[in-house]
Amino acid sequence: MKKLLGLSLMGLSCALAGAAPAKSAECPRGELDARYCDADGDMVADAPTDPKQFVDPSTLVFAYTPVEDPEVYRGVWDGFLKHMEKVTGRKVQFFPVQSNAAQLEAMRAGRLHVAGFNTGSNPLAVNCAGFVPFTMMADKQGAYGYEMEIIVPADSSVQKIEELKGKTIAFTSQTSNSGYKAPSALLASAYGMQADKDYKPAFSGKHDNSVIGVANKDYDGAAVANSVMKRMFARNAVDAKKIRSIYKSESFPTTGYGYVYNLKPELAAKVKEAFFTFNWEGSELLKEFGKAEPAQEAFMPITYKQHWAVVRDIDKAMNVSYACK
Predict the structure, then answer these.
(1) Local confidence band at 11 (pLDDT 50, 70, 90 cut-offs)
(2) GO CC terms on record (predicted)?
(3) Does 322 fall in a domain?
(4) Which of 113, 87, 222 is nearest to 232 (CA)?
(5) Does residue 324 lie within any of the structural domains?
(6) Is 54 inside a domain boundary?
(7) Of 2, 62, 105, 210, which is least surrounded by CB within 10 A?
(8) Torsion of CA 133, 136, 140, 144, to 10 degrees
(9) 70-88: average pLDDT
(10) pLDDT tens digits for 178-233?
(11) What burial class does residue 290 get, using C-beta atoms within 10 Å of its C-beta: 0-12 exposed, 13-18 middle, 19+ buried?
């Protein structure tokens, strides 16, 4: 990570729609949007001090990060969402978002109450949309994480990163940690490779698109989250023999789960209870996420301040802005 700190790239901004409430009075907020306060210094938005600003929906809307086909995950999450209905006493609706931007916009506009935001978009969700992450998946001993891998077709002549010069490298979206920010920082800082100068960037939109694109030789290489790729291998969504990895990063935190900052506190507490009391044994969640290494088979408590520090370091190195426009 030390290599990344001197890197200076064009900043990114979060362009989101949705009617904003009146700006908060002057208060400590760090990098949070002006509508939020952070009096306790935990780097996430505090709950409103005025009870009239709480939201108390009869139907909770849940969205899982759009790293793969959302409809595949409707069934995967069904058992968990039924458990959340029992714990909260509310209906829970699965919202199949198609992009990180759509998910961020939905929460900022008040249409999304509970969500899993991917590693890279967590800081934008926290600062722009009032997202309060409190848990992520881990194994039963508390081990967690995934790595960014740069992959090429198995029969490609490319053996190392610098041999991708002049070729097409697929990324997912600009908000993705492993699908864009981390590999872009690596290519620039460690190999002196700049987009559009030393290689041609392509944006596939999702990790699964990048993996399949490399397998089909649509791209010369791609940067992906290996947790997604391994799940695809496990369910035979792509032939692992058609792909070869030429780089693996250090471990990053996985998808962070949480709720919108102004969810009524009693309801927010029930949402947290639903995550931490869910029985994984025999569940579709375990069937799907247990394929990861380490296995994702439990929800562990996390804090944005601690667990996303490495991601914020990458964003800082890339001059990423958390300002919403």
Answers:
(1) very low
(2) ATP-binding cassette (ABC) transporter complex
(3) no
(4) 222
(5) no
(6) yes
(7) 2
(8) -120
(9) 93
(10) 999 999 999 998 999 999 999 999 999 999 999 999 999 999 999 999 999 999 99
(11) middle
**How far is it, in rounded angstroms, from Cα 270 to Cα 274?**
6
Residues 259, 123, single domain; the answer is: yes
Given a cut of 80, whether residue 71 has pLDDT beyond it is no
Strands of the sheet with 256-260, listed across from one edge = 91-94, 59-64, 114-117, 256-260, 131-138, 298-301
**Number of domains comprising the chain:** 2
Residue 111 in contact with residue 61, Cβ under 8 Å? yes
Residues 117 and 259 both lie in one domain: yes
Whether 45 and 104 map to the same domain: the answer is yes
Pull the structure tokens for residue 22.
Answer: 């009146």
Residue with tokens 């790293």: 67
Last residue of a domain, one of 252, 280, 304: 252
Residue-wise pLDDT tens digits, 113-155: 999 999 999 999 999 999 999 999 999 999 999 999 999 999 9
The residue segments making up the domain with residue 107 are 2-143+254-317
